[in-house]
């Protein structure tokens, strides 16, 4: 059987610049939201997730998937701006805080990152992206903080 060990983005991104634990990431997002409201500045929260790992496990080797996964994560991190910051959500999703960026601008940046991954990575990952601002981020913060409290 071709079982893939649990791929955890945190293992690939820890120690990289601007990469934070989920708890610290949530604190940074909270602060970004506070600044956004106080100074009427944009702030967006983006999410990039690989959604077809299960399907790939059926046709590809563990090594192929692991190497491609690492390459995808590296491509995403290398393609970000210096002011962006990163956290992880689950095992196959990267969260990105986009200071001074609207959700529409973040969607463009995420689409660019998705294209870079598609060009750089030999496997065809199904990459889903989303970007939110305002109340949607607050809902996300509450949900994630509750999840952390339950651990």
UniProtKB/TrEMBL annotation:
It comes from the Bacteria. This is GGDEF domain protein.
């Amino acid at each position: 059987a071709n079982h893939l060990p649990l791929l955890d983005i945190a293992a690939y991104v820890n120690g990289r610049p601007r990469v934070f634990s989920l708890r610290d990431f949530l604190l940074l997002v909270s602060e970004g939201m506070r600044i956004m409201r106080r100074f009427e500045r944009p702030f967006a929260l983006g999410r990039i997730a690989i959604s077809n790992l299960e399907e790939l496990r059926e046709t590809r080797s563990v090594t192929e998937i692991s190497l491609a996964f690492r390459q995808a994560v590296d491509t995403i991190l290398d393609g970000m701006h210096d002011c962006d910051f990163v956290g992880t959500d689950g095992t196959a999703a990267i969260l990105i805080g986009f200071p001074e960026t609207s959700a529409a601008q973040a969607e463009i940046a995420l689409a660019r990152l998705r294209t870079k991954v598609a060009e750089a990575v030999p496997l065809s990952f199904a990459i889903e992206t989303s970007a939110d601002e305002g109340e949607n981020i607050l809902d996300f913060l509450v949900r994630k903080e509750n999840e952390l409290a339950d651990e």
